[in-house]
Amino acid sequence: MDLTYRPRRLRRTPSIREMVREYSLNPSDFIYPLFVHEGNDVEPIGAMPGAYRWTIDRLMGEVSRAWDLGIRSVVLFPKIDDELKTEDGAECFNEDGLIPRAIRRLKEELPEMTVMTDVALDPYSCDGHDGIVSSEGIVLNDETILNLCRQAVVQAEAGADLIGPSDMMDGRVGAIREALDEEGFEHVGIISYTAKYASAYYGPFREALDSAPREDGGKPIPKNKSTYQMDPANGREAITEAQLDEQEGADILMVKPGLAYLDIIHRLRNESELPIAAYNVSGEYAMVKAASAKGWIDEKAIVLETLLSFKRAGADLILTYHACDAASWLSES
Question: Could you say which of 21, 85, 116, 138 has the lowest number of CB atoms within 10 Å?
Fold first, then answer.
C-alpha cells in the first residue's frame, strides 16, 4: 500500500508509545474523599466496598497512608448523628463539630496535606436537603447562603485549605468569598461544585452519610434535588454556571458526576483558564467494584482507564474513592 503516513509507527514499541503519550496520571492529581463519624469503630460502607466511615483517631492513619502514596489532598464528609440534625442545619457551623475537630487534628499531625471541605446543609439537615426547606416545601436560596457562609468561616478557622460549596445555591460562591475575606481568610481557596447535576449516580454516597431527602409529616419535603442541582439534559447551562462562579471568585471549577459528564468537563476546559476538577462519584465507584467482584472486569485496568479519561477530557484534578488504589498501581508501573 502506498501510505505516506502510518499512525502505527508511533505505537510500535512501549518506549515510543510512552514518548508520544499525550496525557498521564499522577497521584498528586487525586483528591481522596473520606467519610468521618463520631462512632468508636471504623464502619464499612455496604454500597461502597473498600470505603469506610472513619473515626477521627483512625482517620489520621488513612490520611498518612494516602500521603505516603503521593496523594496531596483529601476532602472530608461527615456522618452526623440524627439528634444533631435540624431544619436549619445549624450544626454545620458548630466550632466544636465533627468536621472542624477533624480538620484541626489533621493539620496538627500532617500539616502539609491539603484539606478540602464540603459546604452544604444536607449532612446536617433533618430534611436531607442542601438548603433550608420552607414550610411550603421550597428550598430557600438566600436564607441558606447565610448558614453556608458561617459554615465556610468555621472550616477556614479550623485550618481548611479549600472550601467546597456543593449546595448549588445561586450566588453562594461570591457570598462565601466575601465572608472569608472579611474574616481574614483571603488565602483560603474555593473549589466550587460548578456543574453539579441532579444525578442518579449519588445513591451510595447518600447511604454513607444518611443524607437523602426524608419524609416529614409536618411539611412537604421535595423528593429530589432538581430545583437546585442541574438538569442532566443541559450542557450549555454549565457554561453559565462556570462564568458566574469565576466572576464570584472561585479558584477551581468542578463537574459532578464525572464519567457521564465528560462532555461538560471538556466544555468548561475550553471556556475557562481555571483548574477543572472531576468528581468520580460513588455510583461510578460502586459499579466498578460490583463488576470486579463478579470477575467481569479487570478492576485495575478499568479504574486507570477511567481516571485517564477525565484528564483527556480536560480535568486537572480528580476526586475519586479509587485514589489510594490508583496511586499504588501507578507506583508499580
Answer: 21
